[in-house]
Amino acid sequence: MAPPRCPLAVTPTPMLPMPRLERELGFAPRSLWIKRDDLTGLAGGGNKARKLEFLVGDAIARGCDILLTGGAAQSNHVRMTAAAARIAGMGCVAVLGGTPPDAPDGNLLLDAMFGVEIVWAENYDAEMVETVMAETCMRLTSEGRHPYEVPLGGASEVGTLGYVVAAGEIVTQAPLGSIVYTATGTGGTQAGLVVGLGHHGRVRGVDVGAVPDVEARMAGLIAGTASLARQPMPDGRAQLDRSRAGSGYGVPTDDLKEAIGLCAHLEGVLLDPVYSAKAMASLIADRRTGRLLADQPTVFLHTGGLPSLFADRYRTWLAA
Question: For burial by CB atoms within 10 Å, which of 37, 109, 121, 134 has the most?
Fold first, then answer.
């Protein structure tokens, strides 16, 4: 029996060539492609729409009336979970790491528009946010509500099914033998792609520093998702670039500014400084050092994150 699914995303998303960036980086013609999962449509787009289709479907099947999740203050996942909740006729509560700003900006402004009930934790720490989420879940239950706890980034076996499906799209759209670069936060996107493509060597994840134990989380997700999807365990070992996280989650670095600038100037594509720019910075570095060969068909998975560009923290950094 297929897992329940709530239609939220506009898919399949397009796979497009990147000819000018390709030439800039010395790729062979028609070797560099972009998978536009920033165009999934839900609340500004992004990769979480694919996961939320299965998570919200599961919540509806269980008779839940509220989605509970968490993340950093500028969480793309929270913004999209809030929109999904409204489409499904549910409420949304989010635990955010940090303190409330004087005025909402970026994703926080959109959270407010969707009517999210925010519970503020202290400075962002994944384990602390998860602890407060568990406490909030118990509170909501005691109040007679029926919450569905959506993990950070939607990274559960159920949510990860969204990227098993996405892997099937990539197989039909990309050149034979392509490898995929993706930002890796809580691990669900990379885990789903690996299960769907069948080999770790096909997916190069770029750790953005969202959680300290992402490799262990991915290992569990891969095993559970493969079983749920009735797929064999993938071959090989996890490919994860841990050199791009910088001094902390969400902290921008100079190589991100170059990645954002090259994609904007050469391809008219906007990257965000928390996720997609870090993945692109890794791809650029791998090509320049020769780890990524000129004729290797390569797909850059754009996971979204546009609202973060309008948060004061990043807007002033980019303007400088």
Answer: 37
Please answer whether residues 155 and 187 qualify as being in contact, where contact means their C-beta atoms are separated by less than 8 angstroms.
yes
> Domains in the chain: how many in total?
2
CB 55 within 8 A of CB 7: no
* pTM, full prediction: 0.97
Does residue 59 share a domain with residue 105? yes
Q: What is the mean pLDDT of each run of 10 residues along the chain (320 residues)?
A: 91 98 98 98 97 98 98 96 98 94 94 97 90 97 98 98 98 98 98 98 97 95 98 98 91 92 98 97 98 98 96 88
**Catalytic option among 75, 276, 282, 308:** 75
Active site residue 75: yes
Contact 199, 235 (CB under 8 A): yes
**Main-chain dihedrals φ then ψ at residue 309, nearest 5 degrees:** -60, -20
Cβ neighbours of residue 150 closer than 8 Å, sequence gap 6 or more:
52, 55, 59, 67, 68, 69, 81, 156, 159
Mark whether 248 and 272 lie in a shared domain: yes
